[in-house]
Amino acid sequence: MKNKRRDFLKLSGMAGLAIAGDGFFGGFAQANEFPKPNFQSSLSLDHSRYAINEQIKQNFEIAKNILKPSQKQLERGLELHMNSLVIDCYGFMPSAAPDAALINSAIDSKASQLELQDMMESQSMTRFVIDKREREELENAWKASGVTCVVQNTGEEGNGISRLLKRLANFTYSTDMMSDFVSKAVKPEDILRAKKENRHALYFTGNGVPLPQDWISVEDELRYISVFFHLGIRMMHLTYNRRNVIGDGCAEKANGGLSDFGRAVVKEMNRVGVIVDIAHSGWQTSLEAAQVSEKPMVASHTTVASINKHIRSKPDNVIRAIADTGGYIGICCIPRFLGGSGDIAMMMKHIDYVVKKFGVDHVAIGTDVAYRSQFSNEESKKISARNPERTRWEALWPPDDFKESSEMIQSLAWTNWPLFTVGMVQMGYSDDYIQKILAGNIMRVAKAALV
Question: Which of 51, 65, 286, 335 could form a disulfide with 408 if both were Cys (CB 3.0 to 4.6 A apart)?
Answer without folding.
Answer: 335
